[in-house]
């Protein structure tokens, strides 16, 4: 299976949200990374056919999805940043309703829902009204509805938002198991959620793709630009004025910091292996806040 995004542009009255965005995707997990306002959500909404592009096209196995959008929608699962719920529905009733909308076979729907409730640790909430549940539990319900039709393409916009550490790990384990025969696109600000899962990382800025590559290859870009130093707490502010400082940790009397710089900082420091968090700061810095 191949999903091709060809020259997608999205124009609004006073803004270009996407500009000639192009990439090819095959089964595996893709991390979509960029600062707020970069165009990530717009791209995912176009992929989910919620909005239409101003220019460009999307092809699945060489065929333009606009030729048969209904067939395309049957193979996608989408979790938006903010999913609407019928608050008075129970979890099971809501998932049954989504199954109906997705044309899931009635004879299979109950088993599929029960399996997902178990998979996402939602069994104890299945008869609870959604309005009584926490945001973290609602997020897991959102993940369940995205998986309900066993889609070939999964589109997640900030899927681990509001999840506790245990459920974030569970989510990562689930999508890792699913990725062998599905295209999974994850937009997230929690870089650790995708660092060791992603087949490729796609960096987006100002509506344009700036790079797409494997985590190993993409980190080579910032080789010899990440430094570690132990500094006195009272020298941190001055260091931050001159350099991009990340990952500040208490280290007894001193603090350990990571510094992103193409030249050696003017403190006692040593080069260290870069991470995707470092890559994010290298490209986006304070823009990502």
TrEMBL record:
<keyword id="KW-0067">ATP-binding</keyword>
<comment type="similarity">
    <text>Belongs to the ABC transporter superfamily.</text>
</comment>
<feature type="domain" description="ABC transporter">
    <location>
        <begin position="3"/>
        <end position="231"/>
    </location>
</feature>
<dbReference type="Pfam" id="PF00005">
    <property type="entry name" value="ABC_tran"/>
</dbReference>
<dbReference type="GO" id="GO:0016887">
    <property type="term" value="F:ATP hydrolysis activity"/>
</dbReference>
<dbReference type="InterPro" id="IPR003439">
    <property type="entry name" value="ABC_transporter-like_ATP-bd"/>
</dbReference>
<keyword id="KW-0547">Nucleotide-binding</keyword>
<protein>
    <submittedName>
        <fullName>ABC transporter ATP-binding protein</fullName>
    </submittedName>
</protein>
<dbReference type="InterPro" id="IPR027417">
    <property type="entry name" value="P-loop_NTPase"/>
</dbReference>
<dbReference type="InterPro" id="IPR003593">
    <property type="entry name" value="AAA+_ATPase"/>
</dbReference>
<keyword id="KW-0813">Transport</keyword>
<dbReference type="GO" id="GO:0005524">
    <property type="term" value="F:ATP binding"/>
</dbReference>
């Amino acid at each position: 299976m191949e999903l091709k995004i060809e020259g997608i542009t999205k124009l609004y009255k006073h803004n270009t949200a996407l500009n000639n965005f192009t990439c090819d995707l095959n089964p595996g997990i893709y991390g979509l990374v960029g600062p707020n306002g970069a165009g990530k959500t717009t791209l995912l909404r176009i992929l989910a056919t919620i909005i239409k592009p101003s220019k460009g096209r999307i092809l699945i196995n060489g065929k333009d999805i606009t030729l048969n959008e209904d067939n395309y929608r049957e193979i996608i699962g989408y979790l938006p940043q903010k999913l609407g719920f019928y608050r008075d529905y129970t979890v099971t009733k809501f998932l049954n309703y989504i199954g109906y909308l997705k044309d899931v076979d009635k004879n299979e729907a109950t088993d599929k829902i029960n399996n997902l409730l178990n998979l996402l640790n939602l069994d104890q909430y299945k008869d609870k009204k959604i309005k009584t549940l926490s945001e973290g539990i609602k997020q897991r319900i959102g993940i369940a509805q995205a998986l309900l039709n066993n889609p070939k393409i999964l589109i997640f916009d900030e899927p681990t938002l509001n999840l506790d550490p245990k459920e974030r790990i569970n989510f990562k384990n689930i999508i890792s198991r699913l990725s062998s025969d599905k295209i999974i696109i994850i937009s997230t600000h929690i870089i650790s959620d995708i660092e060791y899962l992603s087949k490729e990382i796609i960096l987006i800025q100002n509506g344009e793709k700036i790079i797409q590559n494997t985590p190993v290859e993409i980190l080579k870009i910032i080789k010899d630009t990440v430094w570690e130093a132990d500094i006195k707490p009272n020298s941190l502010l001055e260091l931050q004025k001159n350099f991009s400082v990340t990952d500040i940790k208490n280290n007894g009397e001193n603090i350990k910091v990571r510094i992103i710089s193409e030249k050696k900082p003017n403190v006692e420091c040593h080069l260290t292996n870069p991470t995707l968090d470092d890559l994010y700061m290298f490209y986006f810095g304070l823009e990502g806040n």
